[in-house]
Amino acid sequence: MAGKESEAKDRKYVETPLMKQYYSIKAVHGDAVLLFRVGDFYETFGEDAVRASRILGITLTRRANGAASYVELAGFPYHALDTYLPKLVRAGERVAVCEQLEDPKLVKGIVKRGVIELVTPGVVLSDNVLVNKENTFLASVHFGKKTTGVAFLDLSTGEFYVAEGRDDYVDKLLSNLAPKEIIYQRGWEERFTRAFGTRNYTYKLDEWVFAEDINREKLCKQFGTASLKGYGIDSMTSGISAAGAILYYLDFTEHKNVGHITGISRIDENAAPTFCSLSEYARAVSKKLMPPSYALCSSFTASCSLMRWIGRQPNPFFSMTRFVLPSVILFIEILPPILDTPSIAKSLFFCNILFPA
Which DSSP helix (H) or strand (E) runs through 284? Predict the structure, then answer.
């Protein structure tokens, strides 16, 4: 199969009008599998078709592409997107979804098309791709002059965290939070591999994306504030560079609806955090490996995670966030103590909702 991919990559195609449009879009998203909407189907061509056929188990065919050549082709019905897209993303592929932007019935000639979403392992909103009871974090790493900055965002929930420190500390955070994708500066591959190994799915961005002054402005604009002092991160230059790069990446991947990202929480290196997923703790409680206890929510986002987890449980008692039996109440220590006043206030507010006096 690898031979077929190489052959498809090296072959020169004759450009029909449709294929000329395809190649112009593919040139912008060369590192992604391009799902190209043609009528009632999403089609893939060339090397993408070979990869899609292998991952999805769909038929690989050929179509004429001018008098002197052919092009590999593999596709599926448009209504099956929710079935096939998760498989591609879970296989570690970046997927560009290209839609018809005009009604074919009203257009003479080639229909206008464009990419409406770029789905990556760390930037995903579809419930079919998201893992139940588990965060899907996108991480960003910036190697600064004095410290290494790191930020984590779960786009589906808006949970946003930032930290900075030595490479070994950042490596511990990456191991504990297990992001699905990490973005970092192009040209720093050797440093990244030396510090964090090759276990993660990564994507490199140009150095200018991590500029601190630009990213400070991005974050303030996103949160609607004049400065970042209220979040306790104003002096975290490397962390700000990493966090702002995440906002750029969301825009780059056509994820414009980010109004739910309203703040950011600082992870303090000196607080020695203990990370524990909700599902892991629930299993521990059920097996009596840990005693049940009242929840300790150390951040607003931890509270939200608890409510989401409770809402997914089949037990009817779990479906009511205000009515939790003592024998199954969870103890959660997800993050170290937060330092910014707004998040503390939100945390107390939601803890009061969960556990009224």
Answer: helix 278-286
| Cα–Cα distance, 155 to 181 (Å, whole number) | 12
CA angle centred on 241, ends 237 and 242, rounded to 5°:
120
- How far is Cα 199 from Cα 197, in angstroms, rounded to an integer? 6
CB–CB of 168/147 below 8 Å? no
Q: Which of 201, 186, 192, 182 is nearest to 140 (CA)?
A: 182
293 token code pair = 């206890």
Number of H helices, E strands in the chain: 11, 12
CA gap 3, 276 in Å, rounded: 43
pLDDT tens column, 96-109: 999 999 888 888 88
Q: Which pLDDT tens digit goes with each residue over 298-327? A: 443 444 445 445 444 454 444 443 333 333
**What is the phi/psi pair of residue 71, to 5°?**
-135, 140
Sorting pLDDT into bands at 50, 70 and 90, what band is 338?
low
Q: Got the DSSP string for 84-140?
A: HHHHHHHTT--EEEEEE-S-GGG-SSSPPEEEEEEEBTTB---TTTSPTTS--EEEE
State whether residue 142 is helix, strand or coil. strand
Reported pTM: 0.70
Question: For residues 104 and 39, is the Cβ–Cβ distance under 8 A?
Answer: yes
